Input
Amino acid sequence: MYDNPIILADLALILGPDDDAHFLGHAEERGQGDYYAVVHRRHGLWTHLYRIAHDLRPDRLIVHFEAAFPGDCPDACRSWLAERGRRLV
Output
């Protein structure tokens, strides 16, 4: 699931020891990044939607926080993206 070592490093910045990352897909527009639903468990159960994209420097990535949902609900992230017309490839 994580074949890009740069993305692995950035996911490590947003994942706690008991958290799970779910790859949702690539943003439809090239260069806009990849979407991940991260289920956080450390301070209650929350699912956060992140978009990880390359910075202007190709060796760096930017993590964009998109939305938060109570509970373990990666499917809510997919629905949120669809409601806003953000298609995944």
